[in-house]
Write a structure and sequence with these properties.
This protein is of the alpha+beta class. The protein contains eight helices and seven strands. It has three domains: 49 residues, no CATH class; 48 residues, no CATH class; 132 residues, 2-Layer Sandwich (Phosphorylase Kinase, domain 1), CATH 3.30.200. The protein has a seven-stranded antiparallel beta sheet.
Length: 251
């Protein structure tokens, strides 16, 4: 991967939009390239500044001033008309978003809300869970049999993830997949409770502490057990997710 290719993937990587293979390749490149390491740190610092900014609704007067500046700077095709074409509307939206971001960062009171908490690992796991909910991304091996799911990981990761059958408790094993989260190649054991998918992310790391977080309606529980770090993520209600964790740990 060249530096130019890395730069094209850096933004999507920080937004959780890359697949596991590209994320791993990106991390390998950055680890050996000081310039790209610095570029990622700058972009990550910008992301943190935006997420940490306070939210303020832009008043109508401010919006009018921004649109006036856009019309002056961008030329006649962005000036008001009775029915602007679709391309013009798209350009207006993109330019307005860029200007709002610049104004927010320079004033110290951004227009974007910083609502997330729980640290980088939680954000990475959540992004991977949401990515896994997209059609075709949820499961690499489809099976309700742990003796099928567990061997599937052999040769794909350098550890043997524990796979437990909780079907009798109402948490059906439906398969597994690979992902890349918080700079770890992770095995993901996928369960289902009614219509709710539960992703259990697993990688070797005995020192990770227990944590609980809720972001945008998704709940997570993390813990360490038997030399592994575990993250359970779902939009399932918190009491049932806690039950899943208790039963999994006791099984």
């Amino acid at each position: 991967m060249t530096c130019d290719e890395m730069e094209a993937l850096l933004g999507p990587a920080l937004d959780g939009e890359l697949d596991a293979a590209h994320l791993a390749e990106l991390d390998r490149h950055v680890a050996g390239c000081p310039a790209c390491t610095a570029a990622r740190e700058r972009l990550d610092a910008l992301r943190r500044s935006v997420r940490g900014a306070s939210y303020h609704r832009l008043p109508a007067q401010g919006r009018a001033a921004i649109m006036a500046q856009l019309a002056t700077a961008a030329g006649p095709d962005l000036r008001p008309s009775s029915s602007p074409p679709r391309r013009t509307l798209q350009r207006r939206g993109a330019l307005a978003a860029s200007l709002a971001l610049a104004l927010g960062l320079s004033s110290g009171a951004g227009f974007l809300a910083g609502r997330r908490s729980g640290g980088d690992a939680m954000e990475s796991v959540l992004a991977a869970h949401v990515r896994g909910l997209q059609p075709g991304h949820a499961i690499d091996v489809v099976s309700a049999d742990g003796h099928t799911v567990k061997p599937w990981f052999d040769g794909k990761v350098d550890f043997s993830p524990p796979v437990k059958d909780l079907g009798d408790a109402g948490f059906a094993l439906i398969g597994g997949r690979l992902d890349y989260v918080d700079r770890h190649v992770a095995a993901v054991i996928v369960y289902r409770r009614r219509q709710h998918q539960i992703d259990l992310f697993v990688w070797p790391e005995a020192s990770a502490g227990a944590a609980t977080a809720t972001i945008d309606g998704y709940h997570s529980r993390s813990w360490s057990q038997d030399g592994f770090s575990f993250w359970a993520v779902s939009d399932l209600n918190e009491s049932e997710l806690d039950e899943f964790v208790r039963r999994w740990r006791a099984a």
